[in-house]
Design goal:
4 helices; six-stranded antiparallel beta sheet; alpha+beta
Length: 171
């Protein structure tokens, strides 16, 4: 039992503070949605491209992601095999971009472009949807997951033999 004169109510200041926080959050979100401000990771490529590489990604039957340097329409050179359970950031970014293509009914034939700009930023570009992702926005470790693909050499003979043994899903 409460002592005489005790009021059982929630502190008024806390309620006012919560209402102000909620209201300002809603106003900020509405402003960002209505002002066509791009997300922090999606940028316009304003700087000059220092180096770039066209890349294609394909899943194989064992769950590996095979990364190809898209040399031309008839010859793609495999440069990396990403085993299941590894490269989570790279896999999730690529799955998101492929899903956006699928949503827009765009095929997988056009390669993505990985570009190092003259200001040092590493940018992943999907030329079919015009999405540009500044990989630096996700931290150095995640940026490095893509940076190593920029200059990765072709797979050696042993890796190519292993790759040839696996059947591939279409890229």
């Amino acid at each position: 039992m409460a002592p005489p004169g005790y009021k059982d109510s929630f502190p008024r200041g806390a309620l006012i503070g919560a209402a102000i926080l909620l209201g300002s959050t809603l106003l900020f979100v509405a402003y960002m949605r209505l002002s066509d401000t791009p997300p922090a990771a999606q940028i316009e490529v304003a700087g000059d491209v220092a180096t770039s590489r066209a890349l294609k990604f394909a899943d194989d039957a064992q769950g590996n992601v095979i990364v190809y340097h898209a040399v031309n329409d008839s010859a793609d050179t495999p440069i990396a095999i990403l085993p299941p359970g590894s490269n989570g950031f790279l896999r999730s970014v690529m799955r998101g971009l492929v899903q956006a293509r699928r949503f827009d009914d765009i095929g997988r034939a056009t390669p993505f472009t990985l570009a190092r700009l003259t200001d040092g930023r590493l940018v992943l570009i999907d030329p079919t949807t015009d999405r540009r992702i500044d990989l630096r926005a996700f931290g150095q470790t995640n940026e490095n997951a893509f940076a190593r693909l920029l200059k990765a050499p072709p797979l050696d003979e042993e890796q190519r033999a292993t790759l040839a043994q696996h059947s591939h899903k279409s890229p």
